Hints:
The protein is mostly helical. It is built from four helices and no strands. It has a domain at 33-91: Alpha Horseshoe (Serine Threonine Protein Phosphatase 5, Tetratricopeptide repeat), CATH 1.25.40.
Amino acid sequence: MERCPTCKAKYNGKSVCYRCGTELGLLLKIEKDAAMHLDKAKQAFLEKDFEKMFFHARRAWSLRQLPEGRKMLACAAMLTWRFETAIKLHHDQGS
Ligand SMILES: [Zn+2]
């Protein structure tokens, strides 16, 4: 997180925004969890455990919609024969 999602103040590492008082701890946890699930998806890919990769990629995507997460989930969907999911992710790009 680079800025407070409420007031856009620069993020200074605290769990509460110094300017507007927005509680940022939960958001930080979501960001951290999403990054963790992306890492686990990558690891599962390297282990060729594509169902596990899909599970973690989907968790990461549900927590945070990042371009990297979209690619990861689309790849995992292809590798587990979930072509409709992969196509949907492709078509939703940029929205
Ligand atoms: Zn703020």
